[in-house]
Amino acid sequence: MPFRRIAALVAVPVTVLLLASCGSSDVHGTITEKEYKPARITWTTEPVTKRKCTTSRSNGKTKKSCRTVQTGTHRVSHRHPACWQIELDDDAHELCISRSRWNKVRVGDRW
Q: Is the Cβ–Cβ distance between 41 and 78 less than 8 Å?
């Protein structure tokens, strides 16, 4: 069996295992704050570029050089869904949870 095929067969289960272990870390703490953040759209401006090439001839040889040139800008929208957020006492975790669960928990509850 070729090396690439063996590497691919090994890589798939390892990747799945790594992704599963990343998602299983439980966050614990006491709820110190609850906040609802409505859905919103934010905008950023990003450059629009194109590749511009020129050719020059020297000593009978043609040389082509290219560079990226900014031709303008355009606005890009970023949609943020509604978030029912809780903050934990470790000051490192702000979690978005379901609306029904957010309605049930209170500040001071153990998460």
A: yes
pTM score over 0.70: no
Task: Find out whether 48 and 68 touch, Cβ atoms under 8 Å.
Answer: no
User: What count of Cα atoms within 13 Å lies in the side-chain half-sphere of residue 38?
Assistant: 2
Closest CA to 82 of 39, 34, 18: 39
Tokens matching residue 62: 């043609």
- CA nearest neighbour of 27 among 102, 101, 87, 75: 87
Give residue-wise pLDDT tens across range 19-74: 443 443 588 899 999 999 999 999 999 999 999 999 998 888 899 999 999 999 99
d(CA 99, CA 82): 10
